[in-house]
Amino acid sequence: MLEVDTVSRFFGRFQALSRVNLQIREGEFRGLIGPNGSGKTTLFNVISGVYPASSGQVRFRGKEITKWTPDRICHAGIARTFQIPRPFKEMDVVENVMVGALFGQKKGNISEQKARQEARHWLEFVGLEVEEQTRPGELTAGNLRRLEMARVLATRPSVFLADEVMSGLNQEEIERTSAVLRRIHKELGITILWIEHIMGALMNLVERVTVLDYGQVIAEGTPQEVAQNRKVIEAYLGQDGV
User: Fold this and answer.
1) In terms of pTM, does the model score above 0.85?
2) In terms of Cα–Cα distance, which of 91, 90, 70, 89 is closest to 80?
């Protein structure tokens, strides 16, 4: 469904990604992990069109999307959250999600009333109950992340790129967010590629894990296989830590 084929990305002389290969099946729940600076978010940025690949290709449903703009990629069915939430601060929470409904996958014109209904549906789906005209600045860290998830879902994606949706959350919020991700995968059948540093939560949800280190894929397999992989252990702990 989604293929990353020998993708590299340079920023000047710095190589953030080095010939990365990744294949995601339709309906899969895949984890993407690695130490800080390993290239995870850069890979998301390349897939979602924020940065073009310096070399290699990204394909979605067999069609090359390497040079597509973010809006075109979103319309095709790939949507994402951001490591640091990026709400439209001048809009209220419902309007933020309406943006996703109005400008997501193109399935004919949608009225403002219908977009508002969809926004409230997705806010309820992710467990974010707010009063009319609540602004993003009034939300907790956990609710800001749920707002981002609702906005993504409003675009009706086929692929959900989730970038550290549990960062900064307490244990109760982590459990609530885990339940939402499980619903997105099981009930909606959406393919998920998820970057996360909360290893316990990720390993309990995903089917397979891909590990990046210094911009390269160093391991791939089930959570159990990856947890026992020596290269992965060394990447996180260093050779002196194993």
Assistant:
1) yes
2) 70
Q: How confident is residue 103, by pLDDT bands cut at 50, 70 and 90?
A: confident
User: Mean pLDDT, the chain, as a whole number?
Assistant: 92
Distance CA 24, CA 10 (A): 24
Cβ contact 165:81 at 8 Å: yes
SS3 of 74-90: the string is HHHCEEECCCCCCCCCC
Rounded-to-integer distance, Cα 77 and Cα 85, Å: 20
For residues 43 and 205, give the distance between their C-alpha atoms in angstroms, rounded to a whole number. 21
Rounded to an integer, what distance in angstroms lies between the CA atom of residue 152 and that of residue 105? 11
Nearest to 23 by CA among 50, 58, 68: 58
Q: Name the CATH topology of 2-89+160-241.
A: Rossmann fold (3.40.50)
What does the pLDDT read at residue 106? 63
Give me the amino acid identity at 172.
E
How confident is the model over 173-216, as pLDDT tens digits?
999 999 999 999 999 999 999 999 898 899 999 999 999 999 99
Three-class secondary structure of residue 7 per DSSP: strand
